[in-house]
Design goal:
Helices cover about 75% and strands about 0% of the residues. By secondary structure, it is mainly α.
Length: about 600
């Protein structure tokens, strides 16, 4: 802890000496409590608070209040009191000269407090009032640019965040802070991806990719550690973009590079530490994207999402469980909102994995765990509520006599999201429910118009392919065979191009059904066997049962009784296991989550917290 003791005009020498002795004694005691083998932060804070009772000079009061706020921010949950001290310190420091850097420190910490309390508008206003002053202090200008961008992102003002990050990148380049410049550029690309401005994001990602690829040869002032860390950030954005667009096959190579870079970074961190320090003494180069634990989790999150989109449920489940285990270990000493967001994303992916594998009891247990996280971190629900209702709708779709519940959950989800991809996904599944309900043609046609391929989000390949598939399903149901066949063949082409295995299998089953109705048993068997092989490999229980039932019928029509019996037994075995699980699930307490539609949180009777 820093000390500062100056005598103000008008005070007597004796008073000054007395105050100085007491001040240094309390300051020293506070420091001893803070750095002790078993730190006592409460007593350290009490010592600093005791200094304030001595009516210290303004400069000492400002610094002491800042020190108290720092301890409360880092070591306690009492951020309200931290905020009070920071506001008083900021008010006083404005009246003092030659304390500009301390003013920036106070402003930055107060902005962090505001953002932690979800008062992002106040954080934006506060930073904007001081950012011009920060231009003369390289670290604080960069710090405030990152903070201002984050606050605007949380407010949904992405354009403002993009502008701020661009300004930060330009400033960092001007002062030759290369690591920070690239961090700003990648953060800008991330904001543009969230904004779905893929074209501009791609330009930045290509430029940064070229810089990082040639960083060592070009003599760029970056350490090996910094280069690898930036490459991990870069590859995460690339993989995320491909996942957003549903181009899973294109993401495969980037994902391999991501795993390779992360492995190298981990090995470097575990070695003697060579290359791990900053490349310069420039204070503006003291920024990094994430710590190793956060990076580890993020690599697993994108890996889970990629595996699940491919339909590889075993791999997705394995990755998700490893990551959740690490989150549980980190919870013992870190309970921040980022961990909660990671946990929710992974639990949601596990829900989908369980549903594909016919494990409804596992799915509803993971959904219950989501509500437990929401109870402890209320703000997390704001960002994930639509996903939770969507997952509950998908859960209801696989249950008997629960199609109305599925639609209710999908409609609830639409109230809490405006994201184009999420809205389209919900509507596509709603149409499947309506097809199962055998709606009158005029009502169905109205719904089908809303999910035409041309109305899917721009550049989202998987949703466009899914749209062709659902349109093909509807045409099949209505007996428009040629139209159904054309749309399903387009689905197969698009799905194969992107490695969307579940969608390929689904389309093959429907095409097999069309050939069955046309009495073309040979082509039908070829299609459905392919569908069954894919469904067994990934695995997808619903598609396994459906394809096995259809194969049994096809072989029976082809007078191959042995094969017909074989696939009938396969279908019955898989179906019986799934039905037993469903029967057990609907009698559990967690199943009552299907009743949750409008209240802010699931009622306590539904929660096991």
């Amino acid at each position: 802890m820093e000390s500062e003791c100056t005598e103000e005009p008008g005070s007597s020498v004796a008073e000054a000496v007395t105050f100085e002795n007491m001040y240094f004694a309390l300051l020293g005691a506070a420091e001893d409590f803070r750095i002790a083998k078993n730190p006592d932060i409460r007593k350290s804070i009490h010592c600093l608070e005791a200094i304030l009772t001595l009516t210290p000079p303004a400069r000492i009061e400002v610094r002491t209040r800042f020190q108290i706020a720092q301890l409360m921010w880092v070591h306690t949950k009492n951020i309200d009191h931290a905020q009070e001290h920071l506001k008083k310190a900021l008010s006083k420091v404005k009246e003092l000269t030659s304390m500009e850097e301390l003013k920036l420190e106070i402003t930055s910490l107060l902005a962090s407090v505001y953002m932690a309390k979800h008062k992002n508008s106040e954080a934006v206003k506060l930073i904007n009032e001081s950012i011009e002053l920060a231009i003369n202090y390289q670290f604080w200008y960069c710090q405030m640019c990152f903070q201002l961008a984050k606050a605007n992102m949380d407010l949904g003002n992405i354009s403002a965040a993009v502008t701020t990050l661009a300004a930060g990148a330009e400033y960092a380049g001007r002062i030759n802070a290369q690591n920070t410049r690239i961090l700003f550029s990648l953060s800008q690309a991330m904001a543009l991806l969230i904004q779905r401005n893929f074209d501009v994001a791609d330009v930045i990602l290509k430029e940064v990719g070229a810089i990082l690829e040639n960083a060592e040869q070009s003599g760029l002032a970056l350490t090996k550690n910094e280069i690898l860390s930036l490459k991990v950030f870069h590859h995460v954005l690339q993989v995320s973009e491909y996942i957003w667009q549903g181009m899973i096959k294109s993401a495969r190579q980037c994902l391999k590079q991501l795993h390779s870079c992360y492995k190298q970074l981990t090995q470097l961190d575990n070695s003697s530490g060579a290359g791990s320090s900053s490349s310069t003494s420039n204070t503006a180069e003291m920024f990094h994207w994430m710590n190793p634990q956060q990076l580890f989790l993020l690599v697993y999150v994108v890996s889970v999402m990629h595996a699940l989109q491919q339909g590889y449920t075993d791999k997705a489940e394995s990755y998700a469980k490893k990551a959740l285990h690490l989150i549980d270990k980190q919870r013992t000493f870190n309970n921040d909102s980022l961990l909660s967001s990671y946990q929710i994303i992974l639990l949601e992916q596990l829900v989908l994995t369980h549903l594909l594998r016919g494990n409804t009891s596992g799915a509803i247990r993971e959904l219950q765990k989501c509500t437990t996280v929401y109870q402890k971190h209320h703000q997390t629900l704001k960002h994930h509520r639509a996903s939770l209702h969507t997952a509950l709708g998908l859960y209801a779709m696989v249950l008997p006599d629960s199609l109305d519940n599925a639609l209710a959950q999908f409609n609830a989800a639409l109230k809490y999201t405006t994201e184009p991809e999420q809205v389209a996904f919900i509507k596509l599944n709603s149409v499947i429910v309506h097809v199962k309900q055998e709606l009158p043609p005029e009502q169905l046609h109205s719904l089908l118009e809303s999910i035409e391929p041309g109305k899917m989000p721009n550049k989202c390949h998987s949703l466009k392919a899914s749209s062709y598939c659902i349109q093909g399903l509807a045409a099949l149901v209505e007996g428009r065979m040629q139209d159904a066949k054309r749309k399903l063949r387009e689905t197969v082409v698009m799905a194969n191009k992107a490695d969307l295995n579940k969608l390929t299998s689904f389309a093959f089953v429907l095409l097999g059904d069309i050939f069955l109705k046309m009495e073309n048993y040979k082509d039908a068997i070829e299609m459905v066997r392919s569908a069954h092989d894919i469904a067994t490999r990934i695995p997808d229980i619903g598609l396994q049962v459906w394809s096995a039932d259809l194969l049994s019928t096809l072989y029976e029509r082809s007078e191959d009784e042995g094969k017909a019996k074989e696939f009938a037994e396969v279908a019955q075995t898989v179906r019986s296991k799934a039905e037993e699980d469903v029967e057990a699930t609907v009698n559990t307490q967690e199943h009552c989550l299907l009743q949750w539609l409008d209240s802010e949180f699931p009622p306590s009777s539904m929660s096991m917290v």
